Amino acid sequence: MARMKFLCDAERCIECNACVTACKNEHEVPWGINRRRLVTLNDGKPGERSISMACMHCNDPPCAAVCPVDCFLQTADGVVLHSKDLCIGCGYCFYACPFGAPQFPRTTDFGSRGKMDKCTFCAGGPEADNSVEEYQKYGSNRLAEGKLPLCAEMCSTRALMGGDGAVLADIYQERSLRRGYGSGAPGWSTAYGRNDRGSPFAPGGPGTGGA
Amino acid sequence: MRPTMRPLHALLLLIALLAVQSLAAPTFAQAQLYQAPGPNSPTTKEQVPLYVPQDDKLIGRVSIPDEKLAVLVQPEGREWREWRSHTLRLAIGGLAIGMTAVLTIFFLYRGTIRIHGGKAGRLVLRFNGLDRFAHWTTAVSFLTMALTGVILTFGRTLLIPLIGHQAFTPLAEYSKSIHNFVSVPFVVGLLMIVALWMRDNIPEKSDWQWVKTGGGLFSKAGGHHPEAGRFNAGQKGVFWGIVLGGIGMAVTGYLLMVPFAFTGIGGMQIMHVIHGLLAAVLIAVVIGHIYIGTIGMEGAFDAMGSGDVDEAWAIEHHRRWYEEQLRKGYVEGRHPAE
């Protein structure tokens, strides 16, 4: 079974924002919600790098560990999904997430922020695959159609890759060897470095921090 | 001679130039197409790093309006997760259970503290309607927020296995809303308490005597009881604990309610830790307060129940205050002139 991951090759990313736009369009993401974003490090200085960042679908997801209503689940592919029916919009996942992935439709509404929204790895939610309810809550489910995340498919320089982590690592290492340099896979040590068993964790099990 | 030397010079110059160029050219041409392999370039695929240790915060620049997303990696979330998953539960649960255990042992040792010599039957006005309104407004809203807060903190471990996810989500959602909205009457009650009782809660010299003798808590019935005014040192401690702790909880709570209005994510994590620690302390203090106001001491509940206490209780526990009330004529059946 594949272990789905994202890998953004910072040496290739040209900050074109195609991944961001593709994501917004594919899932009809509302205004103000940023499932994917581009962050430029050392902007205008030597060593400038742009990195496309979204939910990294961690091995041991902090969001799932701190959620008071236990609304997260991890699929057999390692994709971290959540149930908007169970989410109470408390914002704890945003406190814990190292990547700032969880998004809320409202921010200053006397403690009510609406249901959390985040990258689904184009895998929808807990609802039936490609159902109307699933699309309305989480956007399209490309994974169920045998397709990979659109952000990565759309990337013009093949900087952003999404798919089986082992394959992505192989491509990235071969590519870096050929060109002679590589600054590592951004976020991988944080998302998968600890406890990298390469296998997903059962929801609520010890891997997700349990209860 | 001169004209013949010129071509020779030119030739020598050309050779020199070519020599320089032939040395420089390959590097120059290569640099345009490839990055020159440096001393650190990987020679095998395995040498290409994948996992680069990331222990510091990584902040860049974003071109979207949501500037807080410029933070690429915030490792502090890991500490907050540890706090939320373990430390917070240990603090709240540990202090509450610890306090209950101490009180149970104390109750077994001391039992209900009786009024020495029995009730006098005459009543003294202790708290008027406004006093009691302020107290119960604060008390009911505090208990509501403590209960809803505990549901959100412990519900996943204790309630989801019992009632299931589908039933727990509405419970948690209502708990969150109630927790947020009940904070308003809590703050109103708190401010009333400050206005009504702060004057009588200023620490004074005689409080030291009360602290030294443990408030007479450990002297068996009939033993010496330190003199006190309207409030003894223990009550003053509860007062300042509730007032200062309550203000701290209100400030941190309201800041958490308007996310990113005043602080970033780091500030909110700290606010949450302060809020949780204060909650743990206050819940334990309030458990002690409820104990001594109900089963712990005979005649104490009347003060906040009907507002009138028995004369014997007043003389025993707050002699100085009783004498004052007597002068003012607040003791039933006795007149200051008598």
From TrEMBL, chain A:
Keyword 4Fe-4S listed: yes
Keyword set, alphabetical order: 4Fe-4S, Iron, Iron-sulfur, Metal-binding, Plasmid
A Pfam family: Fer4_11
Domain 4Fe-4S ferredoxin-type: 4-34, 78-107
Signal peptide range in chain numbering: none
Positions of region (Disordered): 191-211
GO molecular function: 4 iron, 4 sulfur cluster binding; metal ion binding
Alphabetical list of InterPro entries matching this protein: 4Fe4S_Fe-S-bd (IPR017896), 4Fe4S_Fe_S_CS (IPR017900), ET_IronSulfur_Cluster-Binding (IPR050954)
PANTHER family named in the record: PROTEIN NRFC, PROTEIN NRFC HOMOLOG
Protein name according to UniProt: Formate dehydrogenase, beta (Iron-sulfur) subunit
Species lineage: Bacteria, Pseudomonadati, Pseudomonadota, Alphaproteobacteria, Rhodospirillales
